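FORM 7B: Structural annotation worksheet

SECTION A. Query
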Amino acid sequence: MIDTNHTHTAALFTEIILETFKFNGRLITAGDALTKPFGLTSALWQIMGAIKEAPIPMAQIARNMGLSRQGVRRSTHVLIDKGLVRFEENPDHKRAKRVALTDKGRDAFRQLEKTQITWSNAVAKGFSGEELKTALRVIRALGEKL
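SECTION B. Predicted structure
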């Protein structure tokens, strides 16, 4: 017979999971509000953020961000239609082209980063650096266990 009683720490972890789902929903809503003036969504912004440093293939974007390949493909094509990203040749793989920001995309991303900085400064106000470092450490450690 399977034991269905949580340990104390497992029950707390379950509460963290539920709060994370709620937090994720609120974060996406806030991200959509931040990106709307730029004609973007949180999902599109996430793809742009994944390639801001260097172009990478769609499959790698999906792996890095924990997204489905199909979702990344749809978002990438929306960004292409908006002129914010383009495909470029991939020296490591003939068929898997890399996704790169265009100049227009890079400019939009920089403007959006400025907006995000103002927003994150306001949201983080009232929390100590230590509190946020602890939250980050715990989230990362839980993610690694998964």
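SECTION C. Observations
The first helix runs from residue 8 to 35. The radius of gyration is 19 Å.

SECTION D. Sign-off
Analyst initials: ____
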